[in-house]
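Box 3.1. Reading complex inputs
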Amino acid sequence: MEQLWAFGSPATVRQVHEALAASRDIAYTTVMTVLDRLARKGSVEQLRDGRAFRYRPAMSREELTAELMHEALDTVDGSDRTAALLRFVGSVSEDDARALREALEAVERSSS
Amino acid sequence: MTETTPVVLLALALLLTGPVPALLARASWPALAPRAALVLWQAVALAAVLSALGAGASAGTLVMTHPSPSSWLVVLHGVAFLLTLVVTARLLWSAHMLGTALRARRRRQRHVVDLVGRVDGRAPGALVVDVARPLAYCIPGVRSRVVVSAPALDALEADETAAVLAHERAHVRARHDLVLEGFGVLHDAFPRLVRSSVALESAAGLVEMLADDAARRRSGAVPLARALVRMAHAPVPAGALGSAAVTPAMRIRRLAASPSARGSHGVPAWLVAALAYAVAVALVAVPTVAVAVPWLTALSRALGP
């Protein structure tokens, strides 16, 4: 839905709808609802322009991605520690590469 | 109903919050039977809370039903009763705070991932984000998401990606987040000075092992082990999450052993699991029956005609 990123400037619902409708079948009201919801969540900014609203992203794709990265890797402590996510690999500080390689060889041996 | 009931329960509570978790965290057998070990951890936590609450409650009834309570008895047991109220309040508060924080954080995460994540044929069912580092994680919940970073996808072979995704989906499906949330609530409920994170950390490690087992059943041990090696080199800050209790090397060494492995004393894994389950049941049942039932009968006798 973040077609807005493709526009350089604040866009109206009609503009977004036209851009999206070129590639898929989508209702004007759907676009309006989604934009309104994004505005309420603070992801897009709503600017009054005469009778219509214009929308622009509150953050760039890069900024949002950076936030995601920061959150996912956030070094949490204390009560917030458990607020972290379940990640595929945790800390590796104590493992050196050799221990990992040896362990992997053991797995490969036992499975062959 | 004897005057020793509150004391026995209090001693049990202290034992189950201090020495028992310390011993359990140092044991090596949980790697053989992670599911049973997790159940045992939960039983220890539940039994500790039950005996702490039971200590205060039985102290309260003891004073109420005593024919001629001496003043020291009233004071001592008044303190125990107060302690119970504090424990209950702290647990409820901690559950509320952690639950709210977790859900707000995950909601925000999911929202952002949905905005920036894209679908990639190499990782079916997952959202791919263009961050600089190899990364794979899940956002648990009813509307869960599995997230993989583009560098991770580039680094992994197809069968390794499948193993990583199977691992994350196992977390999501088994609601491992709820298990950890329970231990997190307990952890936060303790005053900062006396709290220890061994239970939470051990549980986090066991949860990783369980997800590894699920991924191994689906994708085989070798792809999973290779994926672990590749992802272990991802520059993740030390202690960011997960568990210091279980390192990637330990997880890979676990995979080298067959599922029907034996422990260091030659005890088969199924026996280890059976023993752990038995102890878990006993931990919750025995204090309840041995201490709480006499207390309840005394209470009913006192309240009865």
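In summary: Chain A is about 45% helix and 15% strand.
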